[in-house]
Structures are given as C-alpha cells and as structure tokens.
Amino acid sequence: MSFIAYKDIIEEGDIVILYLGYDNLLTLKVEAGKVHQTKYGALKHDSLIGEKFGSKVTCSKGYIHVLQPTPEIWTLALPHRTQILYSTDISMVIYQLDLRNGSIVVESGTGSGSLSHALIRTVAPDGHLHTFDFHAERVQLAQKEFDEHQVAKYVTARQQDVCENGFDLPRIADAVFLDLPGPWTAIPHAKKCLKHMGRVCSFSPCIEQVQKVCESLKENSFQDIRTFECLQKPYEAKTIRMPIANLGLTNEEQDYNPSLGNITQNEGKDCFEFKSGCRAHIVPGHTGYLTFATLFDPDNAA
Ligand SMILES: C[S@@+](CC[C@H](N)C(=O)[O-])C[C@H]1O[C@@H](n2cnc3c(N)ncnc32)[C@H](O)[C@@H]1O
User: Which residues take part in binding S-adenosyl-L-methionine (predicted)?
Assistant: First the structure.
C-alpha cells in the first residue's frame, strides 16, 4: 500500500484510516494480534486483514468504516504539528504551479506534511519533492511518515533555514512553494533553484506579507505576479416563501407558473413557495493568500 497507488484488500502492515464520523478520523497501522480501542469499543486488527478498503467493520460496541489513505484524507486525519494547508488551497497550488508526473518541486517549510503528500502524489513516479524545514523534530516526523507511507523514494526532507542558507539546488526546480513567516527573504534563494519558466508560489495569511513578497518578486525579475484567495461558496437547496404582492389581481391573473412552485398560506396571507439554491450561511473562511509568479530566462534575469 502507498499513498500514490490504490489497492483493494487490507493486508498486515497497511496504514488505514478509521472513519468514526465526519470530524473523527484516526490513522492506524494494521498489526496482526493487536487491539485498538475506539469510542465504538475494541477493534481487533485481525478483523481488518483481508477486508476490502471502504468496508464497514464491527467493533465490540458498534461499527466503523475503514478507508484507504489518500493525501486528501491524510490532510483531515494527520497529527497537527503546525498550521497546515487544506485541499482547496492545495488544488489551486498544484494547478497554478502546473505540476505533473516528472516535476521537480522545492518546498519550505515542511510543517505537518499536509501539502507534501499531495505534491508527492502529483510528481511521482518520475519527479521529486525536496522539502525543507528548520525545525529538527518536524523534519524527523515528516521523514518517519514518508517512510511509513512508502513514498520516501519520491521525497528528500532536509533540516535547513532556507531564509538564511537557501536550498543548494541550483537550476533544478520546476516550482518552488513557500509557506514561511517571512517568505520574501527566501525569494532570492528560490530564484537560484528555478529553471527557465519555473513557477513560484507563496502562501501567506496576511496581506502585508503578500505586499512584501510581491516587492521581492519584482526586485528579483519574476513576472506574471498574481495573488488569489480561494474561498469555497457552497450552496444549499432551500424552500423560499415570498408573500404575493396585493396588486388587486387574482392569483390566476398574476400568472404564477405552477411548475416553479405553489401558492400557499402563511399567517393568513398568500405566498408563492418554491425551491431554490442559496448560499450556505456558514462558509469556510479565509485561510491565506496564494501569490504566484514566473521566472523567465533565469541566467540573464537581473
Ligand atoms: C505553517 S508550517 C507549513 C505547513 C505545511 N505547508 C503543511 O501543509 O503542513 C511552516 C513551517 O515553516 C517552518 N519554517 C519557518 N521558518 C523557516 C525557515 N526560515 N526555514 C525553514 N523552515 C522554516 C516552520 O518550522 C514550520 O514547520
């Protein structure tokens, strides 16, 4: 099993995601003979071996679902060591950086490895991710997860302060991604690793950080500088009831189209009732700004 390939049947040693509810996901390594306690009681690892991914499995006091890990599910289940990127921003990053199988990507900081897993799946099997963090324990834990998830051959994790010391990867990268508190200080270093037409992306929660990044990108001859904010806009199907205006006409004369709705009564008044798509009241809010830019002809760029 790995995060970049699918399989049907759960085997010993596989990483599985236990789905206990939409906001309650757990990661588990399947080891024969072991028992794991969940809020639905004891789950015997042996009862998972040989089952299909996606199956409903019985615990001592109920049942849970057992899912195959993907980068998207990992983002929802991973242990948070830092703030992380979520799938809406991640999909924009991958699209705008034009990543594909074979791409070489440089990332900093690694943080909790949420973005790293999606980058690895995108560039594998022929590409590579070089991910940097200056925090020793975060690098070790990310490396442990890459090993356990069987993706280690597609990623190199290094401990390094990239703002001070850069990346030491001259002209190899198709893209550089920065999620750092002071990304503008890493832009000159990003420039040194990018190939002709390489793309850079910086993720920052504050607009002041974006301004500094844009200034640094311009000073370093990047072009096509654009900033996006990804906000989801979910819609819900709702019943709308609108009072019918009293124009001195009968309802038939007002010509309400019965295929669009019904005339009903509300507090003694005629209403036109119909189903419509409306914006959800609670929408996921601001995460950060994504600033993208392109570097043309890096050897001759000022
Ligand atoms: C917000 S986290 C990154 C989260 C990551 N994008 C994810 O999706 O899991 C920022 C990381 O940058 C690292 N960092 C901050 N400054 C750094 C620097 N100068 N060089 C390298 N890493 C740095 C921090 O240790 C932290 O782990």
Answer: 112-115, 133, 179
Domain count, the chain: 3
* Residue at which a domain ends, from 41, 69, 97: 69
Phi, psi of 150 (to 5 degrees): 60, 40
Full pLDDT tens readout for the chain, 302 residues: 568 888 899 999 999 999 998 889 999 999 999 999 999 999 999 999 999 999 999 999 999 999 999 999 999 999 999 999 999 999 999 999 999 999 999 999 999 999 999 999 999 999 999 999 999 999 999 999 999 999 999 999 999 999 999 999 999 999 999 999 999 999 999 999 999 999 999 999 999 999 999 999 999 999 999 999 999 888 989 998 888 777 777 766 666 677 778 888 888 888 888 889 988 877 778 899 999 999 998 887 76
Residue 1 maps to a domain: no
Which one-letter DSSP state was computed for residue 45? Answer: G
Give the residue ranges of the annotated binding site for S-adenosyl-L-methionine: 112-115, 133, 179
CATH number of the domain where residue 125 is located: 3.40.50.150
- In angstroms, what is the span from residue 110 Cα to ligand 1's centroid? 5
Ligand 1 pocket test, pick from 88, 107, 119, 135 with the greatest ligand atom count within 8 Å of Cβ, gives 135
Mutation pick for ligand 1 pocket among 82, 86, 203 (CB with most ligand atoms within 8 Å): 82
SS3 assignment, position 143: helix
